[in-house]
Write a structure and sequence with these properties.
By secondary structure, the protein is an alpha+beta fold. It folds into 2 domains: 40 residues, no CATH class; 77 residues, Glutaredoxin (3-Layer(aba) Sandwich), CATH 3.40.30.10. Strands 2-1-3-4 form a 4-stranded mixed β-sheet, covered by helices on one side.
């Protein structure tokens, strides 16, 4: 039940604000430390504000050998952030993932729920422009 409530909170705010976590703990009558431990255990949850668009760069073996590190570097330079960070305007958050399950199409970049396969550094600007 706690996980589904945290999912709802994150969906509403794009992250888990401290105040909301305290309210969840109070309503469920459980220690705040338990709420925080669940919120920090799952990678899907964020305690920091996230951008409107989540960019996930696959760093799995198949994508890595095809140049996903170059794609990640280009995205970081274009957005002036490192993976794990969010742009100042809260438009984009950037993360790396181990696999998105589309190895034949690597390097893979997911933006929100949309897959962008066979990515390379030259395609990054055009793909990001679609979400600007």
């Amino acid at each position: 039940m706690l996980v589904s409530i945290l999912q709802d909170v994150q969906s509403a705010f794009q992250y888990l604000p401290k105040e909301a976590l305290a309210e969840v703990a109070k309503k469920l009558e459980i220690p705040l430390t338990k709420v925080y431990s669940v919120a920090t255990f799952f990678k899907a949850f964020s305690l920091m504000p996230r951008g409107r668009h989540l960019i996930s760069v696959c760093m799995g073996t198949a994508c890595h050998v095809r140049g996903s590190d170059k794609v990640l570097d280009k995205i970081e330079r274009e957005l002036s952030i490192k993976h794990g960070e969010t742009t100042a305007d809260l438009r984009f958050s950037l993360e790396t993932v181990n696999c998105v399950g589309a190895c034949a199409l690597g390097p893979m970049v997911m933006i929100d729920e949309e897959y962008h396969g066979q990515m390379n550094a030259e395609k990054v600007s055009a793909v990001l422009a679609k979400y600007a």
